């Protein structure tokens, strides 16, 4: 049970597990963040496939400082997730870790084009050998996991070679956290914010019985005019019950826990790969 509680502090890992995106209805994601904590289950996302391309201003190595600034249990006291009350101790406590975003050439990548007259999206164009900016998922997730759970608790992070959307975090004691990104969307606002959302399934294996849940993360990145930090982000992680949970129908597609984080990205010259 203690390990399961610790996993809830690890929800932020999804920040760096994004993939190729669809564009959300204009303003929907930013409106969703503005309406916190009045959330219902997100429906306007598309099946996840491939890697997400980040804006060029996110390229490079970063030291990220994350703080939990708010948490809400909308269905309490009837339904409260494991570790929710314990996570109150993390309010306004900074957690730091290294991440990086790298260029990759992706043959056959699809780039959306817009009509020069109407601005509407038209049939994607195939660009061969197109360079894209992606998250270094294994590096980022391992650093993040160890920052939250401790170096000794996390053995390694593995990305499925056939799908960047499936990740396995190996923990001590023959425990595993399997994360599968199932849907996502992005949005770029008029003031330059880059907003992402993704929905994924989590399976924690190794306890007396497997533990399932569904998680959604919505994050708004903003490029700043300073270098200290250079980027900031507002993130909300929403936890939903899986159909296997006895309270699933009681929750009725509403989140059972909401965590809000503030992130700051500082330029880093440290390319060190975490030790496995």
How would you characterize the overall build of this protein?
- With 276 residues, the protein is mainly beta.
- Helix content is 11%, strand content 43%.
- Strands 1, 2, 3, 6, 7, 8, 9, 10, 11, 12 and 13 form an eleven-stranded antiparallel beta sheet that branches. The protein has a two-stranded antiparallel ribbon with strand order 4-5.
- The longest helix is centred in the middle third of the chain and has 13 residues, at 137-149.
- The two termini are 25 Å apart.
Order of helical and strand elements: HHEEEEEEHEEEEEEHE
- Helical fraction equals 10-25%
Instruction: Report on the biggest sheet.
Output: 11 strands, antiparallel
Low-confidence stretches: 1-9, 11-21, 107-127
Structural class: mainly beta
Count of helical stretches: 4
Separation, N- and C-terminal Cα atoms? 25 Å
Beta-strand content: 35-45%
Count of individual beta strands:
13
Question: Would you tell me the overall average pLDDT?
Answer: 79
Q: Which descriptor suits the 3D outline?
A: globular
Tell me the number of structural domains. 1
Protein name: DUF6816 domain-containing protein
Domain DUF6816: 48-267
Organism: Mojavia pulchra JT2-VF2
InterPro entries: DUF6816
